[in-house]
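Q: Start with the shorter request: fold the first protein.
A: Done. Sequence, then structure:
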Amino acid sequence: MDRPTYECIGRGYSRHRAADARIVRELIRLLWLQKGGAIVDVGAGTGNYSAALARLGYTITAVEPSMTTRKQAEDVPGVRWVATTAKRLPLPDGCADGAICVLALHHFSDVKAALSEMRRVTGCGSIVVLTFDPRAAEPFWFADYFPDLWHEAYEVFPPLEDIIDLAKENTGQHVEVYPFRLPHDLRDKFAAAGWQRPRMYLDDDVRAGISCFALADQSSVREGLRRLSRDLESGAWHRKYHDILTFEDFDAGYRFLGIGGVS
């Protein structure tokens, strides 16, 4: 990632940001690669998705500038690490068959350059981006307890249409959009993963791996946690939001973008 976010909040990240098999399957489907194909994972973090793909037979170049997160990476055969930012990849033209970027695009200081670099190193291969747009989400109780964080998401994450336009302009490729409805038992505990598990947000370690919590005004976070904890103990949360407990999955605004290639 380009910004120094995870030098501050990345400690313990790998314990709660495990690769979810359903996300891995979708990455593979949209990349459309044979096993043994070379993939660049841009903004790889601790390399959870790099490792998952390598274990399935792909060759991975994991790109991540944060030493804090790289130190937490498993030593997995088939994963090579490159400590650099997304806007200038020290990789040859066309060296990879495809590229992925999993919930990292919003941390890049130069998204245009990052997309252009992904296209350069993949040549005619596919690029798959998992991103988030709160404007596309179904109504979510999270905003009732953490309104400042939800509002901030609108500032941090541009409209999906803008990301699509950037992808088209800076790769010269067509872009397909695939909604990703969050399973109730998602292993990768990113921001909206607790949509059916509100107690997840009361865990300090879980919140430390979610950038919107770690970088937010902590007085606002504490107030939201106080209210959430109180309502969970009193049963008020369940009385108000019990319907969500019957859902198998939930559209929180996460989207896969398939850029170029075959999907």
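Q: Next, the second protein, separately.
A: Sequence, then structure:
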Amino acid sequence: MSVRLTHLAFLAAAVLPLVGACGDNKRPVTTTIQGSSTTSTLTVTTDSGTPSGTVTETTAATVPVSYVDAEAAYTARKYPEAAELFGAYTRANPENPWGHYMFGLSSWKAGDPEQALISFDEALRIDPQHRKSLLNSARVLLETGRPREALDRIDRAMGLEPLSAEGLRLLGRARYEMKQVPEAIDAYQRAIALDERDIWAMNNLGLIYIQQDRSEEALPVLARAVELRRDSPVFQNNLGTALERTGHPAAAKEAYEAAVVADSTYGKASASLTRVTPLAEGDTTAVDLSTFVADFHAAVQRWQETAVDTTKTVE
């Protein structure tokens, strides 16, 4: 089986010299930078050197934008500002794919997915092997309901780096949105086999199992995800759902409570906690999550062995 496993220059800104146009009059120019504008004081003299008047002009100055400044805005999560800065940076540095990539990333985070796609595509025009642009444009396409277009980019990225847990995780997401459930499960399992700490692949796989009425299979991967990140309200809520659906209301209640503690505004977990609390009162069954985690490690070993066998077959 063959699977296609797919920042510093300144803005060129030169304040144009002010040129005199009054016959042979001399115009000595003194230029000072004040904030973001250029104030030019023109002293007009006669041929004998006697000052005949002073004219003051203020013109807008082009402020240089560096990659570092724009990236700092992005790191501070000032996404609209970062998008504006990276937009200016790319206009001055049109052949730097990383500038376009960060313009795309900032635009996406600022709520403009279409500009994000345009910027990612420009990065890919300059560097067709710009893997991060492939993967993040795929994410934008998935979020905007275009999984088939996303799949093409994921496949291209996987072609550049076949053994990528990140790529496989996105592949699983695309396959599931295309209602290709077995293929999605396989992709998530392979992602986890490559990276046993890929918590989002675990969560997504567990969620698929729950949605497919396979909550028993969801318990190991979700228990491991919670073990790795106990303060995640999403992971705790999903674990609670799997526990509730497998007949463990008391343990489910604990998971829902942990989700609400992590995020008191999480309405879904709050509603589930309210629902399951009466059921938990009579449940005395002890649930040891470490048992499920052990099951998870055993499953990963099987998935890794399967991946090795598949590689041998392809060779």
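Q: Describe the second briefly.
A: The chain has 14 helices and three strands. The CA atoms of residues 79 and 109 lie 6 Å apart.
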